Amino acid sequence: MIRLGQAYQESLLELLPPRERKEEIFKTLKLSVRQTKQIAIETRRCLGIPLTMQFKFGSAESAFKVWRHALEQAGFSLHHDRFPIVFVNNSNSHTRQLFTLFHELAHILFGVSGITDIDETYVQFLNPSQRLMEIECNEYAAEVLVPEEAFRSELARFRERNAEIVIRDLAEKYSVSREVILRRFLDYGEVTPEYYQTKVAHWKKDYLRASIKAGGGNYYLTRLAYLGEGFARLAFRSHYAGKLSKPELANHLNMNARNVDRLEGYRGS
Question: What pLDDT, on a 0 to 100 scale, did the predictor assign at position 194?
Fold first, then answer.
């Protein structure tokens, strides 16, 4: 996957002309320890997604697409001077993918490459400095997706009503996972670490059971999901401008040339 990421970076260097680009989030913002809240606020400003827009996403899948597109438009695409890359495992839920997207963005804003397991128990095996960075990356992702200032008003509701219902409702409101919402309540001391770990483990088992029943998906839609709208559009635009032959286009898309036309059909649908 690292080699594939480097190949995408090489493709971007070839497909995009060497010109001055607009504000790039990974150059504008630099994350450091204990600055997560302020940089998270600046991140939302750079991406141009206020809470009023976020509350209208309607689903975690829509939220992931909007946030991902906003990051691409902000010049953010393994750490790199022009094209840092984030790979997200799309076998995970959309809510988990969304949190991973911002956790890995935090690594880039720290100026380092990183890899994160869905099971957070790996953190206990890291050295103190690495462990602190992972904690900061989690705090940054949570602050971007569920800002503390807005979330604080939900505490009274949590204390007065059924916890499960409040967590579910807030997860839908912010288009994030129940885990992210529960993490927020943990930060405020509203639940114990043991309760948090038990609930998260239970939710993960539920998702795994559901995903096994769901089965596979469409190859072309999956390929487009891997590539991202911005990269696919850039590659096809270069092809139709006569800059790439079909075999060269297929090479950039990391697929067989005979499948390119069908991929284009799905891209336009």
Answer: 93
